[in-house]
Amino acid sequence: MNKNLWLLILSQIFAFTAAPITVFLSGIIGSQFSPVKSLATLPMALSIVGIAIFAIFAAKVMSIIGRRAGFIFASIISSLSSLLAAYSIIIESFILFNFACFLLGAGVAFSHQYRFAAVETVKKDMAPKAISIILLAGIGSAFIGPNVANITKDIIAEHLYAGSYIALAALTLTSIIFLLFYKDGHKPNLINKKTSRSYLELISQPRFLQALVASAFAYAVMSFLMTATPISMHVMEKINLTKTSFVIQFHIAAMFLPSLVTGNLIKKFGHSKIMYAGVFLFLITILTSFFDQNFTNYLVALIFLGFGWNFLFISGTSLLVLSYRENEKFKAQGFNDLIVYSIQAISSLSAGVFLTSTSWKTMNLVCIIFLVLIILSTLRADFKERK
Q: Which of 247, 316, 334, 349 has a CA 20 to 30 Å removed from the CA of 342?
């Protein structure tokens, strides 16, 4: 832990509140303003699309102006987008609210770069621990964001939740306070003058592909099943909303709490072994779908789903930083995030369709395809390295 890493953690906690608040409120507000009820989740979907579309843009901007200026720029964009969302609620415009959520997704795309900035503040062998710490800080965002949004929802009496987005505008701006003390070691002239490899050349590296596949398909499995869980539990299995909410809360905790030890485990056992462990944890989730769909089984499934995601995502991200050159880091990071969050968007958007047209068990079985691909890419990279 050093001063720069502490400042990034504190800044990220406030900057990332846009994500949990969007998850918490966008569907509720969408159901109020949407002319077609089936479009209630469109604001949430567009925010994910915004993350995917702006992933490379975020990395490119930071390669030009540096991390600190990039994060400050993103905080301002997120704050203005929050005010736009508040205004859309006041005038009851579903279209404008959707656009505001899309822009908030752009801000979140910049927030995802905090994990790479954290890696740059420590030695490379400490990268897994730095990433773990940044992800663990996400718990702070998940706690602060929805609670502040709930407390401030009635600030504008006649327009419920407009106050929540005004509060979000203040939260995202708060991150700038910490960034003002952050020392950015960015050297744009040095980086721009050097040539970097093409995307095809980057992917052709076994370790780069292994890292990309682990992170992307970890998100694919996690988002696919997590998005479908409330519908499967509450709508199809008639499990009450309180129990459904309890399962989701424990799932989110399971996603981030292992970060306390994941970095140390990677350092001790290596990236590949932790990836195999992540696949095994996902398999426990899939196994529960063969039993009766009750509260206990959903709880166990979603806890292990969170554990598996944590192991695969942290090991994938920390391995990625070892597989590119200094002058191509922004290119590699942007491309990685584009693939990872595009796959997340596709899996989230398709979850409802899959569940209503098949079953919870079938959805779990489909995920085995992604696990096989993670294992194959890891085995290939290990074999190439030994050879």
A: 247
Give the DSSP H or E segment for 15.
helix 3-15
Residue 191 has pLDDT above 50, yes or no: no
- Is 91 strand, coil or helix? coil
Q: Which of 138, 170, 121 is nearest to 258 (CA)?
A: 138
Other CB atoms within 10 Å distance of the CB of residue 177: 13
**C-alpha separations of 184 from 69, 122, 327, 380 in Å:** 9, 13, 16, 37
Tokens (6 digits) for 40: 């209630």
Lowest-pLDDT choice from 16-20, 252-256, 367-371: 252-256
Report helix, strand and coil shares of the chain as percent, to nearest 5. Answer: 85, 0, 15
Structure tokens belonging to residue 379: 């085995």
Q: Does pLDDT of 38 surpass 70?
A: no
What's the burial of 257, exposed, middle or buried (CB within 10 Å: 0-12/13-18/19+)? middle
Q: How far apart are CA 1 and CA 385, in angstroms?
A: 32
Give the contacts of 19 (CB within 8 A, at least 6 positions apart).
108, 111, 141, 145
Rounded to a whole number of angstroms, the distance between the first and last alpha carbons of the chain is 37
Distance CA 132, CA 15 (A): 17
Maximum CA pair distance of the chain?
68
For range 31-44, the mean pLDDT: 79
* Helix axes of 329-357 and 295-320: crossing angle, nearest 10 degrees: 160
pLDDT on residue 95: 95
Distance CA 330, CA 60 (A): 6
Distances (CA, A) of 237 to 293, 294, 295: 7, 8, 9
Side-chain half-sphere exposure of 312, counting CA atoms within 13 A: 34
The reported pLDDT for the residue numbered 193 is 47
Instruction: Name the helix (H) or strand (E) containing 331.
Output: helix 329-357
Which DSSP string do the residues of 304-315 spell out, in sequence order?
HHHHHHHHHHHH
| Of residues 305 and 39, more confidently modeled | 305
Q: What is the pLDDT of residues 64-82, one digit of tens each?
A: 999 999 999 999 999 999 9
Q: Is the pLDDT of residue 186 over 70?
A: no
